[in-house]
Task: inverse folding
């Protein structure tokens, strides 16, 4: 597994409210971003892996939905997480 339990706790501690706060939008967005980056690197080497490509598209959609939710809920939290993760929008 490319994301260990310790790595997940580190991500949630950094972007969420604590290492056990797995439900916050910021923590989930950060975790999805980590997974998206990993799958992107995988697809650079394995161009014909269409199952992974489909999973990547679904993950991007989930992250986009969470970002849209955060935009409606609290624009300051949205701007902070986008800036911290270096996302385009």
Result:
């Amino acid at each position: 597994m490319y994301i260990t339990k310790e790595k997940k706790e580190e991500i949630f501690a950094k972007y969420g409210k604590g290492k056990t706060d797995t439900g916050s939008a910021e923590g989930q967005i950060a975790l999805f971003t980590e997974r998206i980056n990993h799958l992107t690197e995988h697809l650079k080497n394995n161009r014909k892996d269409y199952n992974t490509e489909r999973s990547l598209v679904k993950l991007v959609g989930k992250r986009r939905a969470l970002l849209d939710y955060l935009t409606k809920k609290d624009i300051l939290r949205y701007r902070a997480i986008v800036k911290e993760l270096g996302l385009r929008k």
